[in-house]
């Protein structure tokens, strides 16, 4: 269910540490539901977060006629199967980034969404922050002139999180944080593939990437330099001449179980607006861009040497 009690009923399919259900509960006065492959796990999660309904299978959720939208926030390797299931059941889907393990999976999801005439969007929550909106407006106004070089880096110490360390779980820093930097470059430099992609990185003992640098060269001598790592923490810094820009989070009516995740609200509200207007994809995060982003990630992984089981038949 979305804010303002609009007639869109959302059900999450999420991992145990995902903040989405807690945020949805805060935003609505109606019940939501949780689905898991194990009923006991779904019931426990529902109990902890005050969710009224728990499903013991994704098929059961897909058949629920009261469900309008499903948020898929499970492991990366599970996105394809779950998203296809829900799309074929005529459910609108918000799928957490990365939408698929590779371009083939993303294209299959896009094709299925269009065949079933339902909404599909990749969940890059930062794309909907007020700061992102202001950056887009600034770029449209060309008040910064012609941008030539973009630098983006994300460094978060996460080398103890199993899902990031195991290849069979879709681990690795490109899929987890690299996609954020790539989508930012895509937003700034516009709807085109880079003319060249150069990537270098370090792998851990399980064969997933833990530190990666990516250079994207675009037309008109424009370049994006991206760095991501799960080995250290590094603060986020933004310099804009002599100005300091701040974008406060929207107020929270109650204390959240997960800290600092109220920013998910912007993404939820955008999906609601899309559905209100009968859209099948987001104008801010279009499916064509999701396909372009995953193609860049595929090439970066290829150069770094990260190959998943899902890549074997490509």
Automatic annotation (TrEMBL):
Q: List the molecular function annotations (GO) for this entry.
A: D-xylose 1-dehydrogenase (NADP+) activity; nucleotide binding; trans-1,2-dihydrobenzene-1,2-diol dehydrogenase activity
Q: Which domain of life is it from?
A: Eukaryota
Q: Which GO terms describe its biological process?
A: D-xylose catabolic process
Q: What is its EC number?
A: 1.1.1.179, 1.3.1.20
Q: Where are the transmembrane segments?
A: none
**Keyword list, A-Z:** Oxidoreductase
Checking InterPro entries in the record gives:
Gfo/Idh/MocA-like_OxRdtase_N, Gfo/Idh/MocA_domain, GFO_IDH_MocA-like_dom, NAD(P)-bd_dom_sf
Q: Which class of enzymes does this protein belong to?
A: oxidoreductase
Q: Which residues form the GFO/IDH/MocA-like oxidoreductase domain?
A: 134-233
Is Cell membrane found in the keyword set?
no
Q: Which reaction does it catalyse?
A: D-xylose + NADP(+) = D-xylono-1,5-lactone + NADPH + H(+); (1R,2R)-1,2-dihydrobenzene-1,2-diol + NADP(+) = catechol + NADPH + H(+)
Pinpoint the Gfo/Idh/MocA-like oxidoreductase N-terminal domain residues. 30-124
Q: Which family does it belong to?
A: Belongs to the Gfo/Idh/MocA family.
Give the protein's recorded name: Trans-1,2-dihydrobenzene-1,2-diol dehydrogenase
Highest classification ranks of the organism: Eukaryota, Metazoa, Chordata, Craniata, Vertebrata
Encoding gene per record: DHDH
